[in-house]
C-alpha cells in the first residue's frame, strides 16, 4: 500500500471474532505483485445473506450473479479477487466466476449459488481461470487469518485497511457485528469501486436482513462520493451466521432488532467514512449538510451536487472560503431553491444568509476551520424540513497524479 | 491573460464589421488590475434580440432581468462587466444593474429594458455602483474598438480572446455574422460561466431569432462541458441589427433563413469549441460521440456522462487508452444500455465490441491517437438510432492549480 492517507484512523481497530466466520487469504497473483490478493471467507451452515449492488448498467458478471444469488438468502462462502475486476469481459468473465463458485461449492459441499464472488481492479481483462483456480485452491486450505489481513487483501489502491465493529444486546445474547471495506476511487452513489462486507453472529431472517442493509446503506455507502464516478462492480454484502443463538429475528418489531440495526448502521457508517478518508488524493474529509429543503430526497440531491462539484472540492483543497461556489452548486442541482432564502456556512460560521453575505462577516474563524482536516459545509434552503448529510473529500493534485498515471 | 492554452487557435480570426454594431471598452477597475473590464456595445435602433440563460436556480440579477428583457425582443445596448459576477448579491446587486441600465438608456435615449447587462467574476460581492457609473461613463464616450479588444475585455480567466465569423446570402444581400465569447471554467450545460454574443446585420423578427438561437445553442454551447459545474451568470445573446437591408425574415421557410441559421450555427459551434479549448488546465480537446442510443436525448446524456467523468478525463490527460472507464461512464448514465452490445473506440480504432475487447487488439495506433491534442472517443450502444456529440477537455494538474489557488 502507498503512503497512508492523512485522514486515516490511527490504527486498524480491534474487531471481534464472529462465530461462524473464518477468513483465509492466498496469492492468486492477478497482477505482477507479491501480496495476497484472493480472500476466502467461510460461513457456517445456516448463514443468511443480503446484498446491495451497483446501479451501473455495465456491471460485472459477479454483480449480475450476486444479485440473483442473494434472492436465495443463503451464503456459505465469499471469494474476493483483487487486481482484476473481471468487468466487461463477457462470457469469458462469467465462466471464470462460475468456475470459482463450483470449486468452492465442491470443497464445502454446498450449492454454487451459496458462494459469492466479487472482483475489483482493471476492467476488460477476463479473470484468468488458471490463476483463479490455483489461488482458490491455496485459499481453501490456508491458515485462518486476522481481520486486518483480510481487509488488506481485498484492497487495491487503498492506502490503509478498513474495519469497524459494534455490538448489541439481542434477547439475552450479546451479538457482534464486524465489517471490512475497500475502495478509494470511483466512489459515488450508488456504490462505487467499493466492496464492503459486514458480518454478524445474530440469527436474522433474510427478508429482515435485506431491509436492514437497504436502510443502513442509504445513509452510509449511498451517501458518500469521491469523484462522482460509479463502478461496475460495487457490492455490499451482509451475512448473519446465527451462531449467537438468539431467537431468529424476522421483523423490526422483534425485541433486539432495533439494537442490531443500530449496530449494523454504525458499522456501515464508519466504513463509509473510512472510504472517503481514503479517497484518491484526499487531504480533507468533508461533511455536507443540507437543511430546509422541500424533502429529504431533494436535500440529498442538493448535498450531492455540492459534494460532487469540482469547484467546491478544489476550493476546499485550497482552504478557500469560496461560498459562491457552494451557491453555484445548490443552484445547479435542479432542485427547488430560492436564492434569496439561501444560507451557507463553513463549520458553525454562517457566511451568507437570505441571499447576501452576512453583515460584518469575519473571515478569520472560517479560515481557521478550513485549515483543519475535517471540514463541514452547510446549506440551508429555507423552504421546508428536508435534510440530508453526505460525505466527500477534496479534489487535489494527488487525485490527478493517481488517475492520470494509472495504466489500464 | 495567462499562458495561452496549447489548444488555442493560432490567432484571433478576422471578424467583419457588422453594420449597426459599435464596440467600446473602458476601465471600471472592478478588480485590482490595469486592464479594460467594461464593454459597451451600441446597437442601431431596430435591433432585435434573443437570449438563452443559465438554468442555475441561484442566478444573478443580470440573468433574471435579461430573461425578462428578451421577451421584448428589442436591444439597443450591451454592457459587460468583467471581474465581478454580481451574483448572490440580493437587492444591492440588482440596484447596480438597474443603475447601469438607466445610465445607458439616458445616454442613448432608449428604454432601460433595451439595455442588456452581463457580469462575470467572483460571486457574492455587490457590483460597486461608483465604479460601474464611472466605467460606463468612460465607455459611453470611448473610441470604438476592434472585435479582438472587445473579446479580451469580456474575458476573465480566459487565456486567449475568442471570436468567430460567417456569412450567408439572404435575398440579394450578403449578410454577416460575428460572435465573441468568454469562459474557461464552470462550463457545463446548460451554459456555464460563459458569456457569448453573436451579432448579425440581417433583419430578423424576434420570434425567429429565438428559434434560431435555441436550436443553435443546443448543439453548441449546450453540448460542451469543462467541469460539469454550471455558473449562475451564463448568457448567450443574439442581436440582429437589420442594417443589411434584407426583407425581414419571420419564419424558417423564408428564402435565406436556412442560410442565415447555418451561419449562426457555425459561429456558435466555433465559439463553443474555443471555450473548451480554453478549459481550465486543458491539454487535450476531446470529442465524445455516442451512437446507437434509443434516442438523441439519451445519447446526449450518455455522452455527457462520459465527458464529465473525472476518471475518463484524467485517463485522457495521461494518454491512457483506459476504455474500461468509458464503459463505466456509459453504465452510470442511467440510460438504456446493454453491456454486451456496447462498442468503444478511440479515434477510428475500435477497442471493444459486443462487451469484450476486440480480438487482436493493437494498442499502438490507439496510443498514437491519444498522444495528439485532439482526441475522439466513441461509444456505440447498439440499441437504436439516437446519436449525439459533445465536447470537453481533459482534467489535469492545471485545473487543480487554477481552482485550488483561486481566492474568493
List the helices and strands and how they pair.
The structure is a homodimer of 408-residue chains.
Chain A (H helix, E strand, L loop, with lengths): L20 E6 L11 E6 L4 E6 L7 H12 L4 E8 L5 H19 L6 E8 L6 H12 L6 H8 L7 E9 L2 E10 L12 E6 L5 H13 L16 E6 L16 H21 L7 E9 L2 H13 L1 H8 L5 H10 L10 E4 L2 E5 L2 E2 L5 H8 L3 E7 L5 E8 L3 H9 L3
Parallel strand pairs in A: 4-5, 8-9, 10-14
Antiparallel strand pairs in A: 1-2, 2-4, 3-9, 6-7, 7-8, 10-15, 11-12, 11-14, 12-13
Helix pairs in contact in A: 2-3, 5-6, 7-9
What distinguishing features does this structure have?
homodimer, 408 residues, alpha+beta, L-amino peptidase D-ALA esterase/amidase, Ubiquitin-like (UB roll), six-stranded mixed sheet, five-stranded mixed sheet, 25% strand, globular
- The SSE string of chain A, one letter per element, is EEEHEHEHHEEEHEHEHHHEEEHEEH
Amount of beta strand of chain A: 15-25%
User: Helix count of chain A, per DSSP?
Assistant: 11
Of all chain pairs, the largest interface belongs to: A-B, 70 and 70 residues
The CATH architecture designation of the largest domain in chain A is 4-Layer Sandwich
Largest sheet of chain A: 6 strands, mixed
Q: Could you state the CATH homologous superfamily of the largest domain in chain A?
A: L-amino peptidase D-ALA esterase/amidase
**Percentage of residues in helical conformation of chain A:** 25-40%
**What oligomeric state do the depicted chains represent?**
homodimer
Q: Tell me the number of strands of chain A.
A: 15
What is the top-level CATH class of the largest domain in chain A?
Alpha Beta
In spatial order, strands of the major sheet of chain A run 13-12-11-14-10-15
Shape of chain A: globular
Whole-Å distance between the termini of chain A? 19 Å
Number of self-contained structural domains of chain A: 2
**Rg over C-alpha atoms of chain A, rounded to the nearest angstrom:** 22 Å
State the low-pLDDT regions of chain A, or none: 187-192
| Average predicted local confidence, pLDDT of chain A | 92
- The computed structural class of chain A is alpha+beta
Function (chains A, B): Catalyzes two activities which are involved in the cyclic version of arginine biosynthesis: the synthesis of N-acetylglutamate from glutamate and acetyl-CoA as the acetyl donor, and of ornithine by transacetylation between N(2)-acetylornithine and glutamate.
Subunit structure (chains A, B): Heterotetramer of two alpha and two beta chains.
Keywords (chains A, B): Acyltransferase, Amino-acid biosynthesis, Arginine biosynthesis, Autocatalytic cleavage, Cytoplasm, Multifunctional enzyme, Transferase
InterPro entries (chains A, B): Arg_biosynth_ArgJ, ArgJ-like_dom_sf, ArgJ_beta_C
Amino acid at each position: 500500500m502507498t503512503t497512508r492517507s492523512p485522514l486515516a484512523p490511527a490504527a486498524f481497530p480491534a474487531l471481534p471474532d464472529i462465530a461462524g466466520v473464518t477468513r483465509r487469504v492466498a496469492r492468486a497473483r492477478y497482477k505482477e505483485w507479491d501480496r495476497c490478493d484472493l480472500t476466502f471467507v467461510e460461513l457456517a451452515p445456516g448463514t443468511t445473506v443480503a446484498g446491495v449492488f451497483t446501479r451501473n448498467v455495465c456491471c460485472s458478471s459477479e454483480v449480475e450473479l450476486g444479485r440473483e444469488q442473494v434472492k436465495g438468502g443463503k451464503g456459505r462462502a465469499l471469494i474476493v479477487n483483487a487486481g482484476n475486476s473481471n468487468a466487461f469481459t463477457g462470457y469469458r468473465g462469467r465462466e471464470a466466476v462460475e468456475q470459482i463458485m463450483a470449486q468452492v461449492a465442491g470443497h464445502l459441499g454446498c450449492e454454487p449459488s451459496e458462494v459469492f464472488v466479487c472482483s475489483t481492479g482493471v476492467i476488460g481483462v477476463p479473470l484468468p481461470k488458471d490463476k483463479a483456480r490455483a489461488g482458490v485452491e491455496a485459499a481453501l486450505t490456508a491458515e485462518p487469518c486476522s481481520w486486518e489481513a483480510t481487509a488488506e487483501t481485498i484492497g487495491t489502491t487503498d492506502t490503509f485497511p478498513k474495519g469497524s465493529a459494534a455490538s448489541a444486546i439481542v434477547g439475552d445474547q450479546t451479538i457482534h457485528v464486524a465489517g471490512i471495506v475497500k475502495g478509494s476511487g470511483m466512489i459515488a452513489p450508488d456504490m462505487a469501486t467499493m466492496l464492503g462486507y459486514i458480518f454478524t453472529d445474530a440469527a436474522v431472517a433474510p427478508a429482515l436482513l435485506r431491509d436492514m442493509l437497504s436502510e443502513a446503506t442509504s445513509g452510509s455507502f449511498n451517501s458518500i462520493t469521491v469523484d462522482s464516478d460509479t463502478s461496475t462492480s460495487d457490492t455490499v454484502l451482509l451475512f448473519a451466521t446465527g451462531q449467537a443463538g438468539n431467537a431468529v429475528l424476522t421483523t423490526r418489531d422483534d425485541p433486539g432488532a432495533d439494537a442490531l440495526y443500530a449496530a449494523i448502521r454504525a458499522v456501515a457508517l464508519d466504513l463509509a467514512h473510512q472510504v472517503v478518508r481514503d479517497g484518491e488524493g484526499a487531504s480533507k474529509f468533508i461533511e455536507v449538510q443540507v437543511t430546509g429543503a422541500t424533502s429529504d430526497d431533494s436535500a440529498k440531491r442538493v448535498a450531492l451536487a455540492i459534494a460532487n462539484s469540482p469547484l467546491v472540492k478544489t476550493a476546499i483543497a485550497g482552504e478557500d472560503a469560496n461560498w459562491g461556489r457552494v451557491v453555484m452548486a445548490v443552484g445547479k442541482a435542479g432542485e427547488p431553491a430560492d436564492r434569496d432564502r439561501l444560507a451557507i456556512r463553513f463549520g458553525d460560521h454562517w457566511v451568507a444568509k437570505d441571499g447576501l453575505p452576512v453583515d460584518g462577516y469575519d473571515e478569520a474563524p472560517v479560515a481557521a476551520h478550513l485549515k483543519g482536516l475535517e471540514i463541514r459545509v452547510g446549506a440551508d434552503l429555507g423552504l421546508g424540513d428536508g435534510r440530508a448529510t453526505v460525505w466527500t473529500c477534496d479534489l487535489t493534485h494527488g487525485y490527478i497524479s493517481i488517475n492520470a498515471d494509472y495504466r489500464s
